[in-house]
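Encode chain A's predicted structure.
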Amino acid sequence: MAFGITREELTQWKEAVSRGEIAFITHFWLEPRFPGIHTVTKVGCSNLERLSEWCAANGLDPRYIHNRDPFPHFDLIGAKQIEILRKERLWDQLERFRLL
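Encoded structure for chain A:
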């Protein structure tokens, strides 16, 4: 279950993904398989080759891309989520979701 984002934010993310950009959206998330994890960042891009290359360049296995048409994405959680958000300078998402 996702919460903590607006419809406008989700729409902007979907539009960027559809244009083939690497796009990030973080939201609160509850998933019993991951106790203690309360957020997820979805890194999306409709260009699967570009998204795969981005994953590999960041030490992530492209096999875990969720190839869900029309919004393929990779889910970031935990320490790797924080590392990537810092690397991408997405301070607003780090602060807003209390990840610092």
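The chain has a mean pLDDT of 95.
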